[in-house]
Design a protein that fits this description.
The two termini are about 20 Å apart. The chain has four helices and no strands. The model has no long low-confidence stretch (mean pLDDT about 90). The longest helix is centred in the first third of the chain and has 19 residues, at about 5-20. The protein has helices spanning about 5-20, 40-50, 55-70, 75-85.
């Protein structure tokens, strides 16, 4: 994947994390930095690009929430996976 496209996909993952997933409620406080979930972007990017299953992505989200020591997201994990699956890029693996 070209570098610029990789950046765009990672930015889209960040948006999904903040706007859909948001297990620590970053969006509830406008002063909270929007980079709170950036440490999780790379792993999810790799799962998406490699054609990881919905279950693999959901399991990753659960482990991430456990590491944060926070409650679950208001969104279901399937909603988060659906939003991540909605990110488009060239040569996206078929499911």
């Amino acid at each position: 994947m070209p570098k610029e496209e990789s950046r765009e996909v990672r930015c889209a993952i960040r948006r999904v994390f903040v706007e859909v997933w948001d297990p620590i409620r970053v969006m509830d406080d406008p002063t909270w930095p929007r980079d709170e979930y950036d440490g999780y972007i790379g792993d999810v990017f790799e799962l998406l690009v490699a054609g990881g299953s919905d279950q693999e992505i959901e399991e990753y989200l659960v482990r991430a929430e456990e590491r944060m020591g926070m409650g679950r997201s208001n969104a279901s994990h399937q909603q988060v996976v659906s939003a991540l699956r909605g990110i488009s890029w060239s040569n996206k693996p078929a499911l």
